[in-house]
Structure formats: structure tokens, C-alpha cells
Write a structure and sequence with these properties.
elongated; WH-like_DNA-bd_sf; single chain; mainly alpha; Arc Repressor Mutant, subunit A; Tscrpt_reg_PadR_C; three-stranded antiparallel beta sheet
Length: 177
């Protein structure tokens, strides 16, 4: 899937939850999807304009550009489903922490331990944030059956955070010896 298509998927997906302004789409992608997906702000507004020109979304009839609310059209929902059904392409990983640790012999044990301690702290903070989100989603599942799908992504994040904590602990022990 191309970069343009993944941005389109994120924007259409955000609008499938509810109609929102461009600013709210940007916030939803950052605050909600941001736990597992990042999107360039510079891509969101041009994507909204393109999706509108292709009649996949419509802007509120008030004619304002600033603060306008966008919503999916039926063809926009069809396009979103088509994008969701496309095969997933694995993106090559880019992990600055691992890159630094791979060349850790140049930094020395203490700097590498500091990198690992920081990585562990980030994972602990991420796990705490995801625990709170999970609690909220579990409360929503009775009223919103789609909340369980969002819960699946939170579970993945929790497992990843726990794995990162275990990895950091094991690595710190390795460097201690």
C-alpha cells in the first residue's frame, strides 16, 4: 500500500467513527491512532482536499473552510472498506534505540544502560496509558460493540509494552555482568 493510500486509510477511518473537522481528524490520528500509527500533519489536509474532490467525503454545507466538518459519503465508506481489505505490506522497522545499542561498543556500557533505562521508562509509561484506555474501552463495550475492535489494538500495545519492559530488564542484567 502506498504512502498516499495509508494516509487515505487513516483519514477515512477517522471519519468513519464520526464526522469531524480537519483539526479533529489530525487530533484523532495523533491521540487515538498514535499509539500504533503515525501520520504526517502535512499529509492530512491535502488528503482531505483530495478526498473531497473525489466525492469520498463531503464538507458541511455552511461553506466555511476553517473548522468545517467532514463526513464520509457512501462511496467513501466503500473506498475505506476496499483499503481495509488490501493485503498488509510490512514496513521495514526503524528503531533508533536498537540502532544505537547495536553499535553500543562505541558508546560503552554506562551509556547503553542509560538508553535501556530510558526505553524501559517509556514502555512503563506507555503501558500505564494503555491500561487506562483499556479500562475505558471495556466500560464502553456494552454500549458500543465496535469498542472491542479498538480494544484489540490496545491489547497489542499492552503486550508490546510488557515485552519491551522484559527486554529492557533482561538487557540491563546482561550489561550488568
Amino acid at each position: 500500500m502506498s504512502r498516499q493510500q495509508t494516509t487515505e486509510l487513516a483519514v477515512l477511518g477517522a471519519l468513519s467513527v464520526q464526522p469531524m473537522s480537519g483539526y479533529a481528524v489530525r487530533a484523532a490520528i495523533t491521540e487515538t491512532l498514535g499509539h500504533f500509527w503515525s501520520e504526517s500533519f502535512g499529509q492530512i489536509y491535502p488528503t482531505l482536499a483530495r478526498l473531497e474532490s473525489e466525492a469520498l467525503i463531503v464538507r458541511d454545507a455552511d461553506g466555511k473552510t476553517s473548522g468545517s466538518t467532514f463526513r464520509l459519503t457512501p462511496s467513501g465508506r466503500e473506498r475505506l472498506v476496499d483499503l481495509l481489505r488490501e493485503p498488509i505490506t510490512a514496513a521495514p522497522p526503524r528503531n533508533g534505540t536498537l540502532l544505537r545499542l547495536f553499535f553500543g561498543g562505541l558508546l560503552g556500557v554506562e551509556e547503553c544502560r542509560a538508553i535501556l533505562t530510558e526505553a524501559r521508562s517509556r514502555a512503563v509509561a506507555q503501558l500505564a496509558a494503555l491500561d487506562a484506555i483499556r479500562h475505558g474501552l471495556e466500560a464502553e463495550t456494552a454500549a458500543d460493540p465496535d469498542a472491542r475492535y479498538r480494544l484489540v489494538t490496545v491489547l497489542a500495545g499492552q503486550h508490546s509494552a510488557r515485552a519491551a519492559i522484559a527486554w529492557a530488564d533482561e538487557s540491563l542484567a546482561l550489561l550488568a555482568g
